[in-house]
Amino acid sequence: MRQLIAGNWKMNGLGADSVALARAIAAGATGITADLLVCPAALHLSGVVQAIRGSVVAIGGQDCHQDQQGAHTGDISAPMLRDAGAAWVILGHSERRQNHGETDELVREKTLAAVAAGLTPIVCVGETNDQRSGGQETEAVGWQIAGSLPKPFIGVIAYEPIWAIGTGRTATEDDVLDMHSFIREELIRQFGDAGHGIRILYGGSVKPNNAAGLLAVPNVGGALVGGASLNAEDFLAIARAAIAESGQGG
Ligand code: PGA
Question: String of b and e for 130-143 (b: at least 16 CB within 10 Å)?
């Protein structure tokens, strides 16, 4: 399966910045063997859709509400994202879990809403610094997987250790190997054979200089990139480091 390199632009840039970034990524995307995805702020989706038209780059949202519609001031539904041209959505990012109190149960409901609207969810999991220093990292991620994924699960997982997000501190390749093997085993335990085919992305300070090593680790199906995805050259350099065909689900 091809690796997926996804850019999470978070709450950065104005409309013109997002369009320029999308254009630069689309222009450099030819010949890249990974699947490419950019996730701009929801307000910028339509401009980015125009900017990448005709390219191989796909578009996603950064969150959606668990209901398809209704009285939810300020929220955005999965059908609205789909209607605006998104095919993917990031769910349960640690910044949503921490800053908006999102629970595993809510992330599971949002995942169901996304799939019902025809979006492919990228469900994020990852332990805190304290959980890792206390040796509870697999337990924490195991609980998140059990609680956040509906059955059946049609989508992608992103393992993002919270201590590595936006900190410049990356998990070592050994950390990633251990956690991705654990997640693969959990997915197979929960979903049987289908668990082999689910892509598991790594996220947390992925940069051009560490991407090749991280993307070569077994069971890594791609990367979810924050800071480095705001620079087209860096994002494309990470995408060029992707492995052309990885094994089961990556
Ligand atoms: P980072 O963010 O690459 O800036 O660490 C990753 C993410 O939050 O998805």
Answer: ebbeeeebbebbbe
pLDDT in tens, the chain (250 residues): 899 999 999 999 999 999 999 999 999 998 899 999 999 999 999 999 999 999 999 999 999 999 999 999 999 999 999 999 999 999 999 999 999 999 999 999 999 999 999 999 999 999 999 999 999 999 999 999 999 999 999 999 999 999 999 888 889 999 999 999 999 999 999 999 999 999 999 999 999 999 999 999 999 999 999 999 999 999 999 999 998 765 545 5
Query: Could you confirm whether 93 is annotated as catalytic?
Result: yes
Best probe residue, ligand 1, of 96, 206, 207, 215 (max atoms within 8 Å of C-beta):
206
